[in-house]
Amino acid sequence: MAPVFKLHVLLLGFLLSTFPVVVSAQTLADRLGYPPGTKLIIVHADDLGETHAVNAAATTALQSGAVNSASLMVPCPWFPEIADFAKSHPEADLGLHLTLTSERVYYRWGPVAPSDKVPSLVDENGYFHHDWEGNQRINPKEVEIELRAQVERALRMGVRPTHLDSHQYRLIMNGKELFEVMLRVAHDYKVPVFVNKDWFAEHPYLASSVGPDDIVLDHTVTIEPEVPPEKWSEFYSTALKNLQPGVTEFVIHPGFDDQELRAATRERATWGAAWRERDYDFFSSQQFRNLLQKENIKLITWRELAQLSKRK
Amino acid sequence: MAPVFKLHVLLLGFLLSTFPVVVSAQTLADRLGYPPGTKLIIVHADDLGETHAVNAAATTALQSGAVNSASLMVPCPWFPEIADFAKSHPEADLGLHLTLTSERVYYRWGPVAPSDKVPSLVDENGYFHHDWEGNQRINPKEVEIELRAQVERALRMGVRPTHLDSHQYRLIMNGKELFEVMLRVAHDYKVPVFVNKDWFAEHPYLASSVGPDDIVLDHTVTIEPEVPPEKWSEFYSTALKNLQPGVTEFVIHPGFDDQELRAATRERATWGAAWRERDYDFFSSQQFRNLLQKENIKLITWRELAQLSKRK
User: What ipTM describes this predicted complex?
Assistant: First the structure.
């Protein structure tokens, strides 16, 4: 059996070097002290700072406990309002939703860094690109300048971020180089980055870039345009009923379906005003609270997860 | 009588050098072909682009004829929405409301030019200064860079401005040098600047800086914080009843008193959401239309005034 054992050792060595976190002896839940099989979720609101309607819905949901974590878009016009909330709610679990695109049509924003320092990130009018399709050549050095400018503005304005994540997953889905920029910035500021094992198969560089001190969630649940509006609560209920053990982040987008948000998102329904109010409604519902209890699902925040990191 | 005549000549010479426009042989109304005594008004909405609630109210008012002229804040987040309106309404009388301050607290914006090219205009977070009080040293060269960047963005986005004016009158009230920057930019782009004789006594450099080809209005009417809400229509009615002959610009601030505008302006009531809806309501009222007819007041726009300028 010696040759087989040797092969196993070689394979283990390969796995350890390629997927060091996947083969880590302990799961996140273990490390947090939970018994095997425990189901933990973060209910995370994205896009705070983007519009007032999103700030209003998300802060209401944070205060009622409908969501327990959120992240803020520093370049957006309503960031000062949400930074003020963060300062007056230092216990809230608020990260930074690192933003490099301005994906709407009638309402737009640009970089925090001087636009001539990040030319690959902006269009001819100085806004972030609407998207990164086509021949956009995004310069990772400029990405790093902009990410640091966003963190620095947030710190100066009194925000103490508990984590970093990436608007539209731009820094997750666009290759090793951009992901490692995000990771480097996170390490420098000693905050975890939102990354999870569900993404490793499609983007193997995520697994190879994270180190043993990085926090890697187990799963993500996020609703997609394929779900028709009348199936909204069914989608989330099913996800909660079928939840796997470990730590899952529900990435949701609460907002109020008012004049501002309708106008800001009117060119398409996806992640639009009605979509966001449906998210707000489900997670504010008694149905959601009942499911948490019935399925014995526990809530956790990035603040608790960050305690695990040796970098803290 | 010779010495007295001589004194008159000297005085006339002084007046001509100091107030060349005041002693111009023809009034604006004369030059437009109106009989003596004609009362003309521009009903001008300020601050388009600042919020959606302002865009919605102002475009409704423009389309109903409640206002007949407006100007756009290019650095503001909702500028793309109003630029789109301008493109699809090429007949509308829309100028640029040159903006160098970000005067609210919870909702803010910064320069169009790269912020490191206009350091005297921005605070440590890259927003325009909240105000110019205290020790702000505004660099006129940077003002020129920023004004040209605003005009260029507007042109690229399809806006063909009929005039330029100054948000919070910053470029009018802060000395000859800044006013002449604005005038120089206006001359280069061949558009008139909003300036009027009411301001000459307090700011004599306005009179000495304008040339014979510049358009100088006769009067301005704008409501001030001293007017209590219940006296709003009385203020405007009295102004219309007592209107002097010549060209008067009513500088108004229509907006809808909704969640967005309430949040954006909540730190003070002046030029806030309720204020702006009062403006919208008066100028949309039958009372206003009746007064125009009863007082024989004619409407005029910057588009018509600009025809007078030899620079066109």
Answer: 0.91
Match 């996020």 to its residue by tokens.
A222
Give the pLDDT means over successive 10-residue stretches in chain A (312 positions): 43 46 70 95 98 98 98 98 98 98 98 98 97 88 98 98 98 97 98 97 98 96 98 98 98 98 97 98 98 98 89 46
DSSP string computed for B244-264: PSEEEEEEE-----SHHHHHH
Beta bridge partners of A39: A246, A297
Which is nearest to A174 in space by CA: A124, A136, A213? A136
CB distance B259 to A256 below 8 Å: yes
Give chain B positions within 8 Å (CB) of A105. 80, 84
- A256/B260 Cβ within 8 A: no
Query: For residues A84 and B106, is the Cβ–Cβ distance under 8 A?
Result: yes
CA distance B260 to chain A (A): 6
Provide, as residue numbers in chain B, all residues whose Cβ is less than 8 Å from the Cβ of A257. none
pLDDT tens column, B12-36 = 444 444 444 444 568 999 999 999 9
Residue A15 CB partners (closer than 8 Å, separation 6+): A22, A23
Q: Looking at beta carbons, which residues of chain A come within 8 Å of B124?
A: 156
Are residues A77 and B112, on separate chains, in Cβ contact within 8 Å? no
By the 8 A CB rule, do A77 and A55 touch? no
CB atoms within 10 A of CB B168: 18
